[in-house]
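Support request, please re-run this one:
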Amino acid sequence: MASDLPPSAIKRERPPGVSPISDIAPAKRQTDESHKVQPTPAKFLWATCQDMNESMRLNIKEVAVEQAEENCLKIQHVLESALGKAKKDAISTGSLAIERKMFKQWIEELNNLRDRHHKHEILVGVEGPTGAGKSSFLAALVGLSELFPSGQQGAATAVVGKASWNWDDKPGSEFRAKVTLCDKADIEQSIKNLLKDMKRLSKLKNTLPRDCDDPEEREDEITNTGNRINWELPRIKAVWGMKREELQVVADTCNSDQSYHKVVQWILKKNPQACRFLQDGVIEFNAAKRKELNRKIKPFLDSTAVNHGAGSPFSVWPLIQDVHMYVKSNFLRPGMTVVDLPGCGDATASRGEIAKKFAHRLDVRLVVSPIARATDEKQGQALMQSGFDEAQMKIRGKYDGRGFGVILSMMDQIDVSTYVEGSYELQNDPETSQKLEDLETLQQRKQNGHKKLRNTQAKLKLVERERKEAHENHRMAEESLLPESEDQSNANGENIEELKTKADNATAAYKRGSDMINTLKSNIEKVCEEMEGIEDWLHNKVTQTRNQYVKDRLQESHAIRQAALNRSDKGSPPLPIFPVSSKAYWRLRQKEPPIQSYTTISSTGLPAVREWLVEATLSKREKHLDDVLGAYQGLMAMMRFYSQEKGIDANFDISRSTVEDSLAQTHRDFSIKLGASLSKAALKIQELNPLEDVKRICKASSDEAVRVAAKWSRKYPADDHDTEMMRCNTYTAILSRNGSMYTPKGTGITYNWLEDLGGLLLRSICKEWDDQMNQRLMEIKAPIMEAFKKTWTEYVSQLKQDIRDNLPALEVSFNHFAATADDGLLPSDSNIQKMLDKLSEDASEVTDDVVELYGRELEPVFEAALNIKGNGSYKRRRDCVTNKIRKISVHIARPIVNKLSERLEARKALVPRDLHRIAQEAINRLKHELSFHLHNLLENYPASEELKKKKIELQKDIRVRVEEWELGWQPQGSKDEKIMGSNLKGPGDTQVIIEDDDSDSDKGEEVVDTPLEAIGDDMENLFRDDEMQDA
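Re-run finished. Output below.
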């Protein structure tokens, strides 16, 4: 900042013939119209492309960022070289000291900007039932096989796995991974809690029911404590290999906190390598090849036990917080980070909890479910139709067709004949019926052809034997011919002629038979080709029919829920649904024979998902690019001011401090005025209140609360048609947890009563919340920016007036600087957008505690139910809960809404502070750029002639690079129209067509030789046209 730089009033004459250069211009100089400071270049393409479509805008800005990074890197090398040389110089005062400080600040800002850009993440996560194919789908999406482990036995992904673009190009670091472990204290506390539960459970079981004041309470506690143990025990066993019996023995010896601490440390020491992992906190891996990295990190991602050093094999997943990979995939380069979450319904319930806690952090949330059971599978349905999650997404502005989608995996798995038999639609489709008839006819023709072929091959085999005999007889007859009487000679000649004719007929018959076999084979091949075409048609037809049926059912359900959320049938975007086949995709990528009907990459469904994700994240990526480009433009301006050429000498008896003092009051005044004008323009933010209609909200949520609570005793409360009752122990366990999340062992079903009620409240407010805190809030940006531009123009005009009144000699040069002041509007525009986005995000987070708030309000209800004992207590507990919620549902909603409202108002109250900060940052940026300009205009050359020459060369070197940078940002016609889609195109995403060499085979069918008598002696007529026609 200008205020950080020491003032300088040192003046020396510039040597003859040396043009003034930015940082070290001589103190005496004049500027006229023929030698004025270079004006700002024309507007850049990325700043003037608002009227283009989203994809083209994004593409232009992506290219502009790449150009900026490249040019800044060149300038950074120049500055670092200059700083390195400056260390060797003895003189480090005056303008040289200021210059070095400016260079360091510029490099620091560049490094921070580059780091911010590289760390930008758009989280695209997948969740779904265990074994749904999430990891395989993500690997295909990114185009890197086995990116995440796909387990063939049990759950593969045991922790949160992330993959981002790797910006590190150092040899040996092309592929990287960062494994973050849990806090050691948390692990120790978990073990301690487990030991306490085990000791308590042992004591409860050793106490007879008749010795207890409340036997039923004893049973409830046994159930709840056992459930907690079952939750935690698999984690301890996975890492430390201790069986329940061993842990029980040591738990029984504990009588104090000190004894528990000793046992915990003893357990930890049983696995020294696990302790080392926890002490390290973070483990990093580097590899030149992806498969090498996969091999290194696989033990940290999945649940298999492996050797980690010299000790026994163990699973490390309970110690892992997350695994973040950095790889080379064009799909990830624009900031995409894919997240692989553990499957819900996992046999180890705690792994499923990881997924749920992480899901709401995602920018795009994809639920993966096998298409064959997508409409029936309860875990997938719970994710797709969770009222709580839907309302949360709506509140966060992510339920708009771009923040949530469904992936129907394993699309290639379908039995055509079985599906057709069970499909009313296909059975009544004339074209399908005709194709089935044609296929049956062709199958009969193929069967007949093969039968005829076998018979013909058998006949030809006998004909070949007969042909050889005939030719041998004819040869032997000719060789045995002796001079005899004329009559005998004639007789022998006739015999030889007869043998020759027979041999010729056999040869001709053999040729006709061979031709017939070739024709039969050709006909069979044609029939097979026709059958293959019909089978492909049927496979496509069945697949598309099945896909459309599933999509229609999901869309119908989605539309009903959307209408309920929006309280309207209009304006609801369709649910993005994508049938995919990862298996078919990899078959094509690896140039293996394709799966039937999947002969192109596009037919696998993966390109459609990529295209949607690109479009769904356009807005967030463009906001980030605008922010980055505004910052790069500021860096460019500083270097332009430093390196620009100037005019002829003038007697400027002016120092930096004189100029800064002349402008200081205006800076202070407009810092306040700009913040005030922004706050005034943002007053409409304070008027936004999605919780204003408290009466409606409370009534809407309470009406549904009774109906929902009445189904809490069902095993599948979300399914209106399934009335199977929950086990008594399960109901009691949920009551003892105050209605919070509980997953009984072995069922894979997760219950959360508090979330059920919280979801009702959120559903009653989400429409207004989305309308006001997502839609209308963003509309307020326009008047804020209008106020900013108006006050900013006044600010710059006042600065010019200050120079005109106090330092008229600088007026021309300052006016040229002021012409660039509007460049500061873009960073401010981005900052205001980020402020509004942050406000929207923070506002939505005030609803995160709605479950906890319901827990506080309902604790007396659940406690009263638990106090009901004796025969029939299960039914009386259910009735108690239902009746109390019926009575208090309206009353408990009101304090919760009031609490949410207080939090929202508290967050909105911070807006003026945020806007004043943005205003101050804008003024600081201008002061910073002005500092570079003043240094160029007023500071002196170094006293040393050698340093003068070096500085002139340095400025020239930087000026050339700035000019190259500016030229790269200028509109270049079609040169810059590089489609973003091609950048995001995953490796191998070209249309692949592989010939399917599948031929029909009849191996195993017995070939029956035809007796010789069936062939007959009439070789001349064997294999004639009538037989061909029969074939």
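The first helix runs from residue 54 to 86. Confidence is low (pLDDT under 50) at residues 1-41, 345-349, 647-651, 974-1016.
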